[in-house]
Design brief:
By secondary structure, the protein is mainly α. 67% of the residues lie in helices and 0% in strands.
Amino acid sequence: MTTRDGARLLLLAVAALPEAAVGDGPVICPFRRISGRPCPACGLTRSWRAALRLHGRDSVRHHPLGWLALAAAAWFALDDRADIRLGRADRRALSALGGVWLAVWLTRLSRPAR
């Protein structure tokens, strides 16, 4: 399976999930079940569902970087060049994005538990 195939499958799965499956259902994240705190990806499915339905505020509320992850997945799913090897500039951009993702997660961890 290529990156492109995986991105397509992921986008289709999120779009096809029934609302009841992503609403106030059970917590399936092992990190959150053990710690009571969100993992770096907690809220992404709900964020993507909201973004796919053009509910921007809800998307950002569920995960501040969900829209960006959705855009990246869509690019990987649709662009023929998505499976090329990463160059130096791409690695720097991904490193910077990783730092932003870490900062967002640490900010979310610092908030009081719900």
